[in-house]
Write a structure and sequence with these properties.
Oligomer: single chain
Strand content: 15-25%
Structural class: alpha/beta
Number of strands: 7
Helix content: 25-40%
Number of helices: 8
Strand order of the largest sheet: 3-2-1-4-5-7-6
């Protein structure tokens, strides 16, 4: 419940940026975090679209604070709230496309966990995100990519190469969500 008011205020500021009718449930957040951390005890994690921090909290909890986690959040108010809430996590206000070099500084490879609302993005924003993501994967900076959507399909051609082919349904979310995961 603590996430509802900050999330609702962010929704009022920019509905397309939020892309959901409610914050992620603990079921979705836990499934995203387990998918990201599975088999990667020494991984660096970059969370894109951290929002109210539901997934961030699960990543921090499951890693016992032993994994370097960085969060990216375009809503300045939510980014500030995340930084206050998680003092051990570096938070970048802005989009993934605006800060890729500083995000990957000092790390060999990262697991990227994305809550970016792919279907709600305007075409130019989706293209910029896709280009930055593809570039980071091709450069070897991303070892695993985890994304969720509210549809069992992806919004651009070639996305299955980046996101995987067999999404997992998380029915205990409003609305139900699908988690995509791909190792690179």
């Amino acid at each position: 419940m603590k996430d509802i008011l900050p999330w609702f205020l962010a929704l009022q500021r920019n509905p397309r940026q939020m892309g959901a009718i409610l914050p992620a449930t603990r079921a979705l957040a836990g499934a995203m975090a387990r998918t990201a951390i599975r088999g990667r005890a020494d991984a660096n994690i970059i969370e894109i679209g951290a929002g109210t921090g539901r997934v961030t909290e699960e990543l921090w909890r499951l890693s016992n604070g032993k994994i370097r986690i960085q969060a990216v959040e375009p809503d300045r108010h939510l980014a500030d709230r995340l930084q206050r809430r998680f003092s051990g996590i570096e938070v970048f206000p802005g989009t993934f496309e605006e800060a890729p070099e500083s995000l990957f500084a000092g790390m060999e490879r990262a697991t990227v966990v994305s809550s970016v609302p792919l279907f709600a993005l305007q075409d130019d924003s989706r293209s910029a995100f896709f280009k930055s993501l593809t570039s980071a994967i091709e450069c070897g900076r991303i070892g695993r990519y985890v994304q969720y959507t509210y549809w069992p399909r992806l919004p651009w051609a070639g996305a299955r190469t980046l996101c995987g082919k067999n999404p997992r349904l998380i029915a205990l979310n409003v609305p139900p969500a699908w988690i995509w995961s791909q190792d690179h």
